[in-house]
Design a protein that fits this description.
The chain is an alpha+beta fold and 441 residues long. The protein has two domains: 21-229, 2-Layer Sandwich (Cytochrome Bc1 Complex, Chain A, domain 1); 251-440, Metalloenzyme, LuxS/M16 peptidase-like (Cytochrome Bc1 Complex, Chain A, domain 1, 2-Layer Sandwich). It is built from 16 helices and 13 strands. Strands 1-2-8-3-7-6 form a six-stranded mixed β-sheet, with helices on both faces. A five-stranded mixed β-sheet has the order 9-13-10-12-11, with helices on both faces. A hairpin with a 4-residue loop joins strand 6 and strand 7 (106-113). Helix 3 runs antiparallel to helix 4, helix 4 (116-131) packs parallel to helix 9 (218-229) and helix 10 crosses helix 16. The protein is globular, with a radius of gyration of 23 Å.
Length: 441
Amino acid sequence: MYANILGLMALCLLWPVLALSGPRIEHWQTDKGSRVYYVHNPELPLVDIQVVFDAGSARDGDRYGLATLTASLLDSGAGEWDADTIAGRLETVGAVLSTGASRDTSWLDLRSLTETAKLKTALTTAAEILAHPRFDRSDFLREKKRLLLALKQRGESPGQIAGRMFFYALYGEHPYAHPVEGEPETVEKLTPGDLAGFHSKYYVAANAVVVIVGALEREQAAEVAERLTVGLPRGESPPPLPPVELPGKARTLRKPFPSAQTHLYTGVPVLRRGDPDYFALYVGNHVLGGGGFTSRIVKQVREERGLSYSAYSYFRPMKGKGPFVAGLQTRNDQAWPALEVLRQTIREFIRQGPSDEELEAAKKNITGGFVLRYDSNAKLADYVAMIGFYGLPLDYLDTFAKRVNAVTRRQIIDAFRRRLDPARFQTVLVGGGAVADGKKE
């Protein structure tokens, strides 16, 4: 109840400010080289903090699951505190802490009240978790068992099997290929020493982005950033990931599975964060498959032919080329007809782009709801973390609507033709429909 009331208050208080302009993001570096991004929002006595590291699963090497298991064990024990002590310290001051990992990043999130004593306790706890995680063997074995169970359950889900196969098909030997959570055979071999080594290499000040959004003055924010990173060794940023190589030709991979529906993905690596084509591709995809019931894919696959309840497409920009993904779930006997309609819809859009009416509607839909994507401290912190980690312009949120509205139909057609080549698309089908005659491709 308390959280819901705070959320409503935050929306009401933030709306007048955000409706006029984007937030003012300030940026500096700590003495040890951590990049800090700060937004002052004094309306509520709260602060949302993120510490983000270039330490995602792309840094696993051949020990898949290492980044995920390291992040998940950070708050299981640190310094002299076990998990119960850490949880008690945070609960006493009303703070909330979480950790996680993606392909590009690992992170710690902290939400705290800004009252001095409470904030101090929350920050001291978070700093100890970041700098001195214990990785006790008993905690490690418990978390490893939990992860292995999750991986086993993943192997029983046709949708998750399809997603895993799809990334392997897209990325081959690239570090993006393997699942963020790892594979059972690689997780099984991990040791507490592996986690400690990964932490000491990547959880360093020079590899950290600190995001602070809330009711703290600039000087207070600088103190917070120093407190959180002072216990970290300076270290250095890791080398760039290897470039993503495009698949040489189109492939269709099939895996029979005893399910009522077939899960289908098709696409190709395309887009890095900060790519000059981002806005043309983003706006164009809103028409193609990202705009819900108004999008071309939904109209063609679902409304006109009734082949699937859920059909979509999206771009997922990352540090390296993230994928363009088009997908759907359908009855087994409709899998191949649905795939052909999906492919044809994409090919036609690449050739013709959106109509003027579709483009105008997409722009209004995107810009009209954009402010609601960062209408709370936590949402805004997510955006600022993205801006900081990927090195986007500090005025990204300010200029977003303007850049969306500047996209032309010709720019969309040009970007889609240059960046999406169906002759390189990788397609995966998992389910009963995957056993159909491959000639229907």
